[in-house]
Specification:
The structure is a single chain. By secondary structure, the protein is an alpha+beta fold. 57% of the residues lie in helices and 6% in strands. The chain contains 64 helices and 18 strands. α21 runs antiparallel to α57 and α45 packs parallel to α51. 49% of the residues are buried.
Amino acid sequence: EHIEALWESFAARHRTSSFALRDLGTQLLRSHRLWHTRVWKPLWCREATVVAESDQELLEEICLYFLLWGELGNLRFCPELLCFLFSAARAFRSSDSLAAKESRSKAGSFLEEVVRPIFNVIFQETFIPGEPPTFKFKLHPTPSHVCNYDDWNEIFWDPGRISAALVLHDGLHLRTCCKTASDLWLHLPSVDWTTSLSRQKTHYEFHSLLPLVVGCYRVFLLHSLTFCALLVWSTDAYWGGWGPRSALGLVAPVWMTIHEVGLQVLSPAVSCRCRLRDLAVLVLLYWLPVATFAVVMLKVEGWQFRTHLNVAGLTINFDMFVLPVHVAVSLSVLLLALCPRSANRRSLSFFPVPSTLPAVSSLFFWLLVLAAKLLLDAFLIQDCGAALSLISHPHDHWLFAVVRSVVLLLPGALCCLASTPFFLQLAMACVGALHGIRRFRGLKVGYRYGRGLARIPERLCRHALHLPQAESARQRWEANEDRSRQGTTWWSQLSHQELAAVVETWNTMVRELRDRDLLSDAEVQELHCPPAEAARLGPPRIPALLNSMHASNALPSNPEAQRRIVSLARSLQVEPRPSSSVKQMPSLSVLVPHYTEPVMLSRAELFVNNEPSELLSILAHYYREEFQNFAERTQQGSHMTGTRRGRQTRQDLESAICRWASLRMQTLWRTVEGVGGAYERAIALLAKQQAPTLPQALRNELVRDRVHVVVAVQRYAQFANPQSSCFDPRQVTAVENMLESFGRCLSVAYIDEVDTSEGKRFFSCLIDGSCPPQPGAKSFTSSLVEVGCKVRQPKFRIELPGFPLLGHGKSDNQNCALIFTRGEILQLIDANQEAYFEASLLLPSALAEFLPVRSSSSSSSSGVSSGNMAGRPGILGFREHIFSSMGLVGKVAADMEFAFGTMIQRTMDWPLEARLHYGHPDMMDKFQMLQQGGVSKAIRGLNLSEDVFAGLDLILRGGRTAYREYFHVGKGRDMGFMSTMSFFTKISMGNGEQAITRQWLRIGLGLPLSRLLGMFYMHVGFFLNHFFVNASLKALAFMVAFFSVSSSGMGKEMAAPAVEMASRYLTVFYTIFMLATMLPLLLEVAIGNGLRAMLRSLATSLLRLTPIFAAFQSKLMGYHFMQTVHHGGAQYLPTGRGIATSRDTLVQVFRCFTSSHMKDGFEVALFLLVSMGTDYSAPFYICTAISVLAWIVAPFLFNPKQFDSPHLVVKDICEWLWWFCRSDREGVECWARWAVCMLELRRHEDLKVQWLLIPTSRLLAVVATSVLLTQVTTVQTVSLPWWLRTLWLLRPPLWHLMVCFLLLAPFDRLCSGRFPLPLTALLALTLSIVEMMVMDTGDNWRCVLFHRYVFVRFMLDVADWFASQQPGGRWLSGFHTACRIWALSVRFLRDAVLGSVLAIFCLFMSLVPGLAKLHDCFLFRRCRQSDASARLRLMEEQSVSTMSFREPGAATMSFREPGTTMHEDPEIQRAMSHLLRARATADDGAGEP
């Protein structure tokens, strides 16, 4: 079935079926044929292999390939393993040996004897067998020495590795036992896969910045070189000479040394000879500037060459060439260092080669970006150079001068490094706006006011319908572009066939809008277009919207209906756009993974105690017009549907309400209704118009062949199993309803488990609407439909080699369902998306993008070149409409996603050429995906962001991606603050895991520099930059504190250089940050809606406190990215996409954001407090205050009902105190357990001594304050010399640590680790105060306090390391315990102060009169009336209208609509009244509802 579907899809575009088969084979086996040439032939010493010459042989090879691919299960993630097995099977099958002829294997032998043994090795590497299997490392990161799919797949990249790795059970090598290639297949069951696949690690995924720095060293080399060059230029007037200038040549050797040494560490499989070769190249080539620099410095110091050379009577002095030679050598080495290089250190035969697309456009783009950045950096660094000259005092110690210089330079370096993405964002906004205007053929702002929409019919005919024999009409319209000036109209110029097709298409779209309740009946009458004969007569029969002579705005009143009509008009004018008919377009399979997302809202969710629930009330309030249209539609439909008496039953009405609500929430039903219903209806309409003579049955078959939807409901079998903990008959019923509604194009894939005597067996199953119920299956009932529902019998049932969910779930679910897709193009859609009928009319054009050669006419029958794949993208992306803009947070998240899905991706496609795959609406070339291992990757931890690896592997294998804007789908996003932050946490952790993978190492080494910069800063570099942004703010705060303390301690003004620098740096930096955050959205709004809408969007963004939200989000992403890079442990976070109406408690906020935000916010505030006495200008304090307030207060500002009542705040405070002070006991949630869990993150560091090798920021701060304290302590006392006094002041705060070691650690062991932390914290506070009192600080108390605080921060890191890593084992267990108690005590004090401040803030804000009402209006755009009881409902008010009516046989029911008052919104009152009365009287035979 699979091969027939693909062959038929290809045959529709070729002259003969033979050409189609050849094209299919070329695209399917392209990667295998390359592998066969590079690996298989050398493996067998160029032994002649059979090449498929006839169509029959080629068809057999295609069948064999799909048979093997379908059996592999999780091994499909290893594409070259598939090539190996396929070549072995093909060689065995084509041989003439007696063994091949007599071989008769039993059914399932390939799975049992080959696939399952390989899978067991993969499974046991990271899982422990059991019921269910458990991940070996639980929530901790996978150790770097553990092998994964990529390591095992790379065994088959080289014939030498295959020969050395694969051994039989008797110890012999597989290659030596096989005389010919045909013998290999028979020996595969004898391979000892456990031995063969062990110790095959080819890349260490160390959790540190080392892999990212090694792979993308050119990015850091470029930035460090520019900063050093600008610094030398800015200080040339003070420290001039060739010494600092010549030192710039050392930047490239330093980074090349880091790169080469790091690459040796990350590549364990490289031979010793290769290592020595690479080190020799490093020393003899890349260290040449070091040698020439030494000569230059000798020359600068006065040394001269005594050698002269006489050439043709001229005396040449070698001193003349010292500097030019150094410059030439340095530039040559720099150019070599910036060039792409291969990561194939083992010279593997089959090594992916990155895409070789020309980088001219990205080169010019980056020249523009870097030029703008250098101008600003030069302006800022000039101040830095002046400040360096001012802080240089001849009488100061050299060490103090170095420390002051480092403290001054570090914030500047961080700011310069972090400013690059901001300039990139600004340039992307400007270039993307111009590119968007060109794509949309100008600004069509009038569309949103109903002007210019009269050209929709003509453009529909030209760009979407592709009617047969319409070439002359198309040429006529192209030659008459200016017909509006000549007075011609579309209804007079179109032929009868074209006019009829346009009218039918338009009326169908109007009916679609009505069925979605976006139009009222009156609006349908206004927009309805009469038949072709009447339309030919023109107005007034033509709808006013399509009449260019109609001046007023004829768009419907509903905003969504307006948007869809305007989007259609804009999509039809986007160029270029390929053309294709339904018959010739590639077939499409839509894959929708599902886990536990809601399929359809149930009656229990919409009605509570026979009253509308809060959710239904909110939906009715938010979608007022649509709810009224729904009531109008059901009122009319009740007389035409339902029972014999001509009225709806109660079940029909409840089902309609559930469907209406489900289509407005992020449900699977909404997704399938779009991609299943809208796609099918649009393609069916196009097929009818393009082939009017084709019988209806054949047209239906054509539609089914072209569009197919597979919903991978992973837990469907568990939903239907009463013995399972996931048993949920509502989900089973909802799936059954989907099959009944969309059964013609819908299939459901799931994973089934069967208990056998040998253990569990797993199957990948498929059901569709034609599948009968399973015999003996249990019948379920649902609250939605009161009828029996049985589990269907699978149409296909393919056994898997074992437990399939080895990754995070989604990628494995996609892999199990991939074998049931039939199209040559795949579209990956999440369960929070939808499609639109009018956009689906352009689906054939979108699919035609994958055709290697586009025909000039839709009716052309010319064949497609089977050898040219250059024009076929591997991934094609589209625009997204974000429909989840409910509430302030939902709107902010929707705006950010809208800017990313339009402006950002448009520029990533061109000129950056840096777009990858981001999941949702992307279409993929199925053949390219199969040949790279699937549509995603499934390594747990590393592949948390599983979808982006499809793009990374595609680029590494020479493919390309594209982005188009004439087609779009809808998408939902998170609508609550906590869920939105969980989403950003998830993608930050996913990018942190990406940064250490081999894919990013090879991307960083193999791409041209201009493409690498775009790829880096739009992916992992984007998140790394957020860390640098927030680190620069902390560095600036430390700098101002340091220089303020220096001035007060030394008795002279030393803060003047830092004042100017801090003010200018932070002001400019923060301004660029805000511009880069908001400009892409504003310009995209201006392109679509005009300047007035852009200004309105700017004003609303500021009123929504978008800068506060952006600053908080930036800190969150930077923190979790770096935490994941250093410590791993990335986990999938279910965010939830419902309406955020619940209030998060103080404990929840404290646990989620203390470590990431609030701690650093209070630390910056403390540094500013230390700097009191020095004026750093108002702009500096304003920018710092905004950042600090964003880090601390944002979770409370965006928390629903946060300030509703002082009673709730007091309750929160009591809960926080109880949680904070409880002891750490088993099963008890408390602060101590949470703090220990945070401490455990450091236990699984891969490079456990990296903090000793690479100085951390806290260690540098300790060194700086120690040198400062040494400098200011110059007054000698009578009893102590100054050096002894200095040592006394410099000593670390050890009193409490000694007490912990001598007393508390033994006592803690006696208490089994349950020593009360409040007591130890109180003891720590007391000892710290006493320790400070006995110190004779004199006038230097500020400096001493500053130093001791910084020292305590560093000691916390050291204590954490000892407590988590536990060096020395049990011999130092007492010291480990003492470190743990001391660290927890200090943190307890810190968190107690922090939590108290937060509690006081919340209590104070809740006491402000009217703030609760204002806060509710701020979050939900609704000013509610005062509510004395402060009940926890989102939209409730004092005066609530109640409508009572009696249901037959039931008590009186009342409807409360808390979303709005009834007297304020009578239309909603009337609509809800009708629906509830209809529901109540639906089964009453007395009268009509």
